[in-house]
UniProtKB/TrEMBL annotation:
Predominant localisation class: membrane
This protein's name: Sulfate transporter
Any one cellular-component term (Gene Ontology): membrane
Gene3D superfamilies: STAS domain
GO BP annotations, alphabetical order: transmembrane transport
InterPro entries: SLC26A/SulP_dom (IPR011547), SLC26A/SulP_fam (IPR001902), STAS_dom (IPR002645), STAS_dom_sf (IPR036513)
Topological category with respect to the lipid bilayer: Multi-pass membrane protein
SUPFAM superfamilies linked to this entry: SpoIIaa-like
Annotated Pfam families: STAS, Sulfate_transp
CDD domains to which the protein is assigned, alphabetical: STAS_SulP_like_sulfate_transporter
Transmembrane segment boundaries: 144-165, 194-217, 273-292, 313-336, 387-405, 459-479, 485-503, 515-546
């Protein structure tokens, strides 16, 4: 028999013909116990196989799916192995395409269109961010437990690399508060570990980008991210209290830090405490200056003097950290006499740029003048063991921070997480060759960048140049900067990272979302950070699994045109192994209670697995054992394939007319049997 397939245009195969290979020639209302197979020949000579499931022996309906499914002829294992070579060559050819090159090197997109207006915007933004990043780098290095110079070392090379590979104009690469705290917990103040950590995390980020693993951040939900960020903010704030009070305190976790602070609080230095608290108050007041507007709200209606005043207020408020550092450094220098320090100062900062060299793969042993070993030797293996899980946590958190900036200023445009991973990965690898520690984009600097009118990633060039100039010419003056002033800068910044504002809308929208958020917050305060965020992610996964294992089933009691009642049950999601026993019990419960035919509407079941097929088989046998009719409606072809692969005997329909006819026929047979 030869028939034209009426839907050939929809399948994309011109004028294909079907030739049946089984001995049966009738398709209408015939009892067929094995599937019919057709060979489909296109005019181009291509051949496909098409399977039509058999009709059930008792009811006029298809066993499985009544939709045509085109499948290529099966290949042998050897053919599949031989196909690897051509597949790999195609992938390599795709990588070398111009489209991929422009996507992975974004500078090729915007550089040919670069204008004078772009240059001016980038210059202003780059200098403004530079004035912000220098004092932040000095302060963040203390969070990382490293000398002040290492914060500056990690603040310029990444800016240059991001110009070439970055996809977001607002991201300013450099040290961040969270990355600095994670570095401290991983490296314990040993700079060799910190530099190696930068290299390895950059390598992991690069590999994650090349393998398209940016989706991993999707497993960190909003509540978990908020809980983690809030806990980290409190830990960072606590770590700076010791410098604010001029005391010595140690500890990795929130509890350890405050325990040490309480033990040493009697050693508080009045000068440091006074300067620190005054700086916090001044910084918070200066933060409000950009909101002050002189004259009409519309810039076009303002006079020249009013515009100058407004711009000056904005600049003072934006550069408040740099102003505090300069003023407090001047006070420290004025009161410094013959080695007597009125405040605890950051001390000597080496002049000049760091030497370009490979990251250290071992930690040398250091012995003091008395012959005491102050630092033990560590091999590369020992260093990897000490870094531990931070090699995974830091790349994920760095990506989270970076993507947060991209989304905040994307204006609805899509964010390429893969490209951002590649950019920050290469930046951290490059940083490790100039003795920098891990960094990423900082949201506070990103906001400054955006408010300054940045036009392209080229603004990072001026930020990097400003850091280089500071290293070349201003490091002798950094000696006089009080630690209390840097602590005040950090505290005034991180208090706004505590995300209290999300609690109220979260409570109103979905109260259960507070559970992983609060659990993450508490766990991060009580445990090391990597365990804290794992607690939050683990709880989220448990919630997802519970949700998948407990689908909702909508129940309707319907009546056929001839007056036969039946029960329509509609599950709202896929059938997978955690949920099928629950679904089976619910369907059995409703079936036993009603004792009428049951129809399962599979409209929303888009997938199933082998375990689901086995349980559905048991469900069918349950109904068969008590002579109760069980039918399926609108079963998807993919689900039908799973059921057929498990040799299920079931009845499926795709229109209510056939369904009603089947229920009526079974009702008639049951009456006759009685």
């Amino acid at each position: 028999m030869s028939n034209d397939l009426p839907t050939s245009s929809n399948l994309g195969i011109p004028r294909i013909q079907i030739r049946r290979t089984s001995s049966d020639t009738q398709l209408d209302k015939v009892q067929i116990k094995s599937a019919s197979v057709y060979n489909i020949h296109g005019l181009s000579g291509s051949q496909h196989s098409l399977s039509v499931p058999p009709i059930h022996k008792d009811v006029i309906g298809y066993r499985g799916s009544n939709e045509f499914i085109l499948t290529d002829d099966k290949q042998s294992t050897m053919d599949q192995i031989k196909a690897i070579g051509p597949w790999f060559r195609r992938k390599c050819k795709n990588v070398c395409r111009r489209k991929i090159l422009y996507k992975r090197v974004p500078v090729l997109n915007w550089l040919p269109k670069y204008s004078a207006d772009d240059a001016v915007g980038d210059l202003v933004a780059g200098i403004t961010v530079g004035l912000t990043v220098i004092p932040q780098a000095l302060a963040y290095s203390s969070i990382a437990g490293l000398p002040a110079a290492y914060g500056l070392y990690g603040s310029f090379v990444g800016c240059f690399v991001y110009i070439l590979l970055g996809s977001c104009k607002d991201v300013p690469m450099g040290p961040t508060a969270i990355a600095s705290l994670l570095t401290f917990q991983a490296c314990d103040g040993i700079w060799q570990r910190a530099v190696l950590l930068s290299f390895l995390t950059g390598l992991i980020e690069l590999l994650m980008g090349l393998f398209g693993l940016g989706f991993l951040i999707d497993f960190v939900s909003g509540p978990v991210s908020s809980g983690f960020t809030s806990a980290v903010s409190l830990i960072i704030l606590s770590s700076q209290v010791k410098d604010l009070l001029g005391i010595t305190a140690k500890g990795n976790t929130f509890i350890e830090q405050w325990s040490s602070i309480i033990d040493n609080i009697h050693n508080t230095q009045l000068g440091d405490a006074l300067m620190g608290f005054i700086c916090i108050v001044v910084l918070l007041l200066m933060r409000l200056l950009p909101r002050i507007k002189v004259g009409p709200p519309d810039t076009c209606d303002q006079s020249v003097v009013q515009r100058i005043i407004n711009k000056s207020l904005w600049l003072i408020g934006t550069a408040r950290n740099a102003i505090i550092v300069v003023v407090c450094g001047g006070i420290g220098a004025a009161f410094y006499e013959n080695g007597k320090q009125p405040f605890r100062m950051i001390g000597e900062v080496p002049t000049g740029l760091p030497s370009v060299q490979a990251p250290p793969f071992s930690v040398p042993e250091i012995v003091d003048g008395n012959g005491t070993v102050t630092q033990e030797y560590e091999s590369f293996g020992d260093m990897l063991s000490n870094l531990g899980s931070m090699l995974i946590v830091i790349p994920l958190i760095a990506l989270l921070e970076n993507i947060a900036i991209c989304k905040a200023f994307a204006d609805g445009k899509p964010v390429d997480a893969t490209q951002e991973l590649i950019a920050i990965g290469v930046s951290n690898i490059a940083n490790s060759f100039v003795q920098g520690y891990p960094g990423t984009g900082a949201l506070s600097r990103g906001a400054v960048n955006n408010a300054s009118g940045v036009r392209t990633p080229f603004g990072g060039l001026y930020t990097g140049i400003l850091v280089i100039l500071a290293l070349l010419f201003f490091t002798p003056y950094f000696f006089y900067i009080p630690r209390a002033a840097l602590a005040a800068i950090i505290i005034a910044a991180v208090i706004f990272m505590i995300e209290v504002r999300v609690v109220k809308p979260m409570w109103r929208s979905k109260k259960t979302d507070l559970i992983p958020g609060i659990a993450t917050f508490v766990a991060c305060l009580a445990l090391p950070l990597e365990y804290g965020i794992l607690v939050g992610i683990g709880l989220n996964i448990l919630f997802i699994l519970y949700h998948a294992a407990r689908p909702k089933i909508h129940m309707d009691q319907a009546v056929t045109p001839c007056g036969v009642k039946y029960l329509m049950l509609t599950p709202d999601r896929c059938l997978i192994f955690p949920s099928v026993d629950y679904v089976r019990n619910l369907i059995n419960k409703h079936g036993l209670k009603s004792q009428i035919p049951v129809v399962i509407d599979c409209t929303h079941i888009y997938g199933a697995d082998f375990t689901a097929a086995q349980v559905i088989d048991t469900l069918i046998k349950d109904f068969k054992s008590r002579n109760q009719l069980l039918l399926f409606l609108n079963l998807k072809p993919s689900v039908g394939n799973v059921f057929e692969g498990a040799d299920l005997e079931y009845r499926v329909f795709y229109d209510f007319e056939q369904l009603d006819k089947a229920i009526r026929e079974c009702r008639r047979k049951s009456i006759q049997a009685a």
